[in-house]
Write a structure and sequence with these properties.
single chain, 10 helices, about 190 residues, mainly alpha, Serine Threonine Protein Phosphatase 5, Tetratricopeptide repeat
Length: about 190
């Protein structure tokens, strides 16, 4: 084979390959205007769209760029997002801005969102969230239970005792939760 023809063919392949790659690579497009603000019909819809950002790194920026609806429900989900991200102070501030009559409902949204975290046994994350809920709903027996169990696991016996004893005053079923609370209280004595 002629070496010259080989080099011409190889050059053709290199140039053709470069052209194909150039035209197949996505280009960065700068928008002429900022992206349109998305509006959500409910706090639940907002939370479903933004839950992935409810973490310690992204929650503040995500909520600044895409705020929850300015309704009690929307702010409850906003507080839940902050709480999941470990930003308990921001969650509390969000609930505190609501009228006092709407605060327990917002705290209950936080509980419902965080309950799976507590059930999964993530005591370090669940404890402060359940404390937040108890601050607005002092007789929320499940939040009392999870707060107490979390505090016990984290070596906070006085708080654990207080919350588990309160749990037993509100919850009267003879089941696993009651038995667990009694067992932990017995260990704390």
């Amino acid at each position: 084979m002629n070496r010259g023809l080989f080099l011409v063919g190889l050059g053709y392949l290199v140039i053709s390959g470069a052209w194909v790659l150039k035209h197949r690579m996505p280009r960065a497009v700068k928008p002429d205007h900022p992206p349109a603000q998305v509006t959500y019909s409910s706090g639940q819809e907002w939370f479903a769209a933004n839950k992935q950002y409810c973490n310690a790194v992204e929650t503040e920026l995500a909520q600044r760029n895409h705020p929850a609806p300015a309704t009690p429900e929307g702010q409850g989900y906003s507080a839940a997002c902050y709480a999941l991200g470990g930003k308990i102070d921001l969650a509390k501030a969000t609930i505190d801005r609501l009228p006092s009559g709407a605060q327990p409902a917002a705290a209950n949204i936080v509980f419902n969102v965080a309950h799976p975290v507590a059930d999964a046994g993530d005591d370090r994350s669940a404890g402060p969230i359940m404390e937040l809920v108890v601050g607005y709903i002092p007789d929320h027996y499940m939040a009392l239970y999870h707060a107490g169990m979390s505090e016990y696991a984290l070596g906070q016996p006085d708080l654990a005792r207080e919350h588990l004893e309160s749990f037993l005053t509100y919850y009267h079923e003879n089941d696993g939760w009651t038995q667990n609370a009694r067992d932990v209280l017995a260990r704390l004595r």
